[in-house]
């Protein structure tokens, strides 16, 4: 009698897509009802360290991976977690694992950062015995899908968005349901501890698992999105979705976001100044920065987007850097922002812009210092968005405004936190300062002869502004000399 034919074995490699619903790689692997499906996750601590990944984000990955493993088990798919030091070791282990387990096809969703792309290219080139199926799943549209008339990537956001929307309508954005349960799971050692990490309690804002993430999404699209345009810049109110940490590691997909948004707000596309559209606009910023790192891989090599800004002579004042990191600059809105991030791992978008601008334009400290510090703190750390946000704020990136427009931290504070509600939340030392002086507390303290346990401003904004303008001017002129 002939031997029964061995079943095909498919392997799904989970990376930044820790969910079972709307996951293209998982859906594709489960299409064949007869194939056995296995899943892996490879933790790479040395690589995470090199990419400055925050311990908080690593802990968030761990929590969500536990939830994913449970969910996969209910579908009959065992998840094996392996730890390799770095990407090279991870691919070596993966090749061996595929051989041992007789894997016929490897499925994964693409990552767009340069190191990650090189890792996947290596795999494609060295694994001829394996069929590799890679998918674009992390974004609404794959990088390269939106180009200008010259066939190039846009370098400014607004025209990118204009071209993006019709492309999106044409391409579609349907979500995929979770695969249906398969038979008995394979007997693999998938109940071992996932990977070594520091367990960090992220508080009530970050319940783990896709069910919790989808609930947060639904709640936001039913409620807070209705005032998003007016409230998104006010740090003292819960005006934004707080979904970034879930999007960063793929517990949620952007397709799920847009579908829920349209379900609750069917007229989203009708007006580009409506609340729901404003939120969609932020999701498109996310797309823009990811498309940008693929079109300009030098961004992943620590280079500025605007070449002449490499000539800037940065300050190396480490006391200024430390004061900024610790939220002790003497500028209340900047300090409250930094303390919010240091304590919770999240910072409001308006405050990210203000505190980034302060580091670069008031302290003249290299934006890369800020980029790294943010990455080490943020639970939502994401290379493309962080690099894009930093370079935008530093005027070394894609901001359509010229470099000589500089935020004044005091006026920004007065505009977006007029009564200092947010400031008082994070700087108890300023609790009794009257609203009128909350942004310039020492003026009040001096007039009242009160001693405040809060630092004097570490720089004078108008002087710092002058110094920065001169530094940018010199860097630009140097480019002119270099070219001639
Ligand atoms: C200096 C700086 C650094 C930043 N670093 C990061 C980062 O590491 N990771 C990160 O996800 N975002 C980053 N951002 C963008 C933005 O601040 C956060 O995405 C946002 O504050 C997250 O809160 P939310 O989920 O409530 O956003 P919402 O306002 O609800 O927006 C919805 C989603 O859209 C995306 N998004 C919103 N604004 C932006 C933006 N400007 N650029 C790209 N995507 C955006 C996020 O995925 C966000 O979850 C940075 C911005 C700046 C100025």
TrEMBL record:
Enzyme Commission identifier(s): 4.1.99.3
Keywords linked to the UniProt accession: Lyase
First-level EC class: lyase
Keyword Lyase: yes
KW Lyase (keyword) present: yes
Name the UniProt record assigns to this protein: Deoxyribodipyrimidine photo-lyase
Organism: Moellerella wisconsensis
Gene: phrB
């Amino acid at each position: 009698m002939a031997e029964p034919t061995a079943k095909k074995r498919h392997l799904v490699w989970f990376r930044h897509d820790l969910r079972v619903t709307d996951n293209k790689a998982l859906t594709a692997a489960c299409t064949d009802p007869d194939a056995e499906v296995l899943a892996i996750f490879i933790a790479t601590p040395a690589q995470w360290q090199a990419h400055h990944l925050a311990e908080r984000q690593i802990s968030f990955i761990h929590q969500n991976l536990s939830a994913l493993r449970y969910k996969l088990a209910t579908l009959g798919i065992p998840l094996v977690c392996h730890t390799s030091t770095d990407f090279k070791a991870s691919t070596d282990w993966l090749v061996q694992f595929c051989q041992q387990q007789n894997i016929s096809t490897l499925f994964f969703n693409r990552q767009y950062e340069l190191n990650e792309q090189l890792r996947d290219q290596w795999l494609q080139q060295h694994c001829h015995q394996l069929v590799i199926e890679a998918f674009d799943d992390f974004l609404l549209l794959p990088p390269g899908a939106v180009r200008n008339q010259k066939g190039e990537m846009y370098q400014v956001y607004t025209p990118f968005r204009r071209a993006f929307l019709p492309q999106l309508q044409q391409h579609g954005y349907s979500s995929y349901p979770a695969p249906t349960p398969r038979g008995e799971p394979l007997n693999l050692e998938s109940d071992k501890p996932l990977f070594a990490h520091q367990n960090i309690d992220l508080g009530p804002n970050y319940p783990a698992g896709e069910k919790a993430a989808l609930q947060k999404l639904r709640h936001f699209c039913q409620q807070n999105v209705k005032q998003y345009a007016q409230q998104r810049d006010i740090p003292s109110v819960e005006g934004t979705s707080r979904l970034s940490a879930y999007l960063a590691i793929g517990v949620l997909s952007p397709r799920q976001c847009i579908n829920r948004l349209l379900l609750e707000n069917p007229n989203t596309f009708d007006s580009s100044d409506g609340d729901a559209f404003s939120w969609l606009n932020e999701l498109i910023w996310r797309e823009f920065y990811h498309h940008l790192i693929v079109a300009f891989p030098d961004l992943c090599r620590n280079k500025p987007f605007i070449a002449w800004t490499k000539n800037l002579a940065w300050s190396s004042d480490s006391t200024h850097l430390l004061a900024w990191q610790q939220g002790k600059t003497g500028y209340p809105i900047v300090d409250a922002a930094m303390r919010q991030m240091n304590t919770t791992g999240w910072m409001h978008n308006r405050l990210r812009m203000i505190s980034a601008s302060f580091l670069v334009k008031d302290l003249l400290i290299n934006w890369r210092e800020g980029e790294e510090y943010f990455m080490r703190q943020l639970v939502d750390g994401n290379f493309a968005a962080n690099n894009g946000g930093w370079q935008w704020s530093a005027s070394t990136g894609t901001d359509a405004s010229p470099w000589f427009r500089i935020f004044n931290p005091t006026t920004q504070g007065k505009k977006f936190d007029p009564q200092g509600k947010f400031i008082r939340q994070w700087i108890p030392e300023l609790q009794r300062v009257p609203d009128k002086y909350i942004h310039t507390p020492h003026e009040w303290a001096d007039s009242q002869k009160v001693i405040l346990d809060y630092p004097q401003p570490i720089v004078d904004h108008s002087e710092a502004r002058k110094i920065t303008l001169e530094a940018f001017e010199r860097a630009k002129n140097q480019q002119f000399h270099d070219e001639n």
